[in-house]
Design goal:
The chain is mainly alpha-helical. The chain has one domain. Helix content is 61%, strand content 0%.
Length: 134
């Protein structure tokens, strides 16, 4: 099963967008499933306005880079911008936005990407990032 399929499976089985990403990459992040679900649950439904799947992707990369702040694992700081912004830019180039409301079409009626599609895109982007980092 690919990471994209695994993330989609987690999303189908009750995980929010962020949890689906963090759970699909829990092994590379060095955490167990319960921890993955717990630290990422706060990002579901568009935390800080951003897509939850993007926040999950940020959390995984931050954990890999040694930023183990379990209270705010997806935090974008001055220190983390160099490696997190390119990931969100890739997502934006695919979907025309990184904001949950815009992606869901809230206020415009024009859905840019489904939640499942966002989860799948983030899993692919994160897989590509990990492959290029090795």
């Amino acid at each position: 099963m690919t990471r994209k399929e695994l993330a989609a499976s987690y999303h189908s089985n009750g995980c929010n967008c962020s949890q689906a990403i963090v759970c699909a990459f829990k092994d590379v992040a060095g955490i167990d499933e319960a921890t993955a679900k717990q630290i990422s649950k706060q990002y579901g439904g568009g935390a800080h306005g951003y897509c939850g799947a993007i926040m999950g992707m940020f959390a995984v990369v931050n954990l890999l880079k040694g930023h183990k702040n379990f209270d705010h694992p997806g935090e974008l700081t001055d220190e983390t911008k160099a490696y997190l912004l390119p990931l969100s830019e890739q997502f934006h180039s695919r979907n025309s936005s990184i904001y949950c409301k815009e992606l869901k079409g809230i206020g415009t009626g024009k859905v840019l990407r489904s939640c499942r599609g966002c989860v799948e895109d983030c899993a692919e982007i994160l897989d590509e990032y990990l492959a290029s980092s090795n």
